[in-house]
Amino acid sequence: MTNLRAESSALSSVSAIPPTYRSVTTGISQPGASVQQMICPLCSSAEYEEIGALPISTSLVAMGITAPIEQVLETPSADNSRLVECTCGLQYFSPAVVGNATFYKKLASNGYYEPLRWDQRKALEFVRSGQTVLDLGSGSGDFVEASAAVASRSVGIDFASLPASNQPSVRFISGRADLDGDEAERLASLGLVSDLVTAFQLVEHLSAPLAFVQSAANLVSPGGCLIISVPNRLRFEIDPVQALDCPPHHQTRWTVDQLRLLGDLAKLETEAIIAQPSRNPLRIVNRVARRTLRRSPPDWPLPPAARPWPLHRILNGMSLVAVYSRGRRSEP
Ligand SMILES: [Zn+2]
Q1: What is the pTM of this model?
Q2: Which residues line ion ligand 1, judged by CB < 5 Å?
Q3: Sorting pLDDT into bands at 50, 70 and 90, what band is 322?
Q4: Architecture field, domain 108-325
């Protein structure tokens, strides 16, 4: 999951957003089964502004996935997922529509793979000599391998297809990187509580990000750190179709403010939130030119997650990294 840095630039493009989808309606969840899901997965507020609705079939086509919808989802779902913005600023899709292993396999074959990404290199700066490292959603294991140069033990957790390592201090263990159910307790029972726990580009895939971070915090040694990364919603992005920011890939969209709130709600100290700088401006100019030249039918129903304007967003690259620490609190 973490290695699917398939950029939306690889996806189909549209030249304009239909004006009807720019309007925003407000709402408050009412009691009842059908709207029970409209609860913010970060702050639990039921207040939101609706941004639009996305047919999952449209999203899959934009990601280049042609398999029948029922083959690529974790659970059967209604075809539409609504995108709303909570009063806390988190944008989330409801219902959450989560891709299964088949979905990620197909997506990986469409995307491209970057060996050690910016967010992972940034996290390496926080690894201290002799520390233990636990990477949730370790993918091909590049961060785990790189951290082993400094750490005394580096362990990667992922769902399947674990890589092999030549380094004696490196282990890869099959498990639920999303820590669903009792997985955090199981990993703790294996002695995997660590000085540094990392989860790169994982939180935005989850329907319950706060519960995940709370579980991950339990795998951090007292005084240790939890580092997560997510795509920056305020990044520079030319392409108005950002299907990878949508279900069944991503369920939530983040800025610095929600990462800070996430730390507060998980009772962690926020040490730093770092925004990836944008890439070479010449590459940006090149991408603008390519987008301008390419024309496709405007059939995408949502406004883009990230937009090229205002201009300051040109300074923002793909990712945000949040560094949380778990203080040595005295037990009550
Ligand atoms: Zn909220």
Answers
A1: 0.81
A2: 40, 42-43, 45, 86, 88, 90
A3: very high
A4: 3-Layer(aba) Sandwich (3.40)
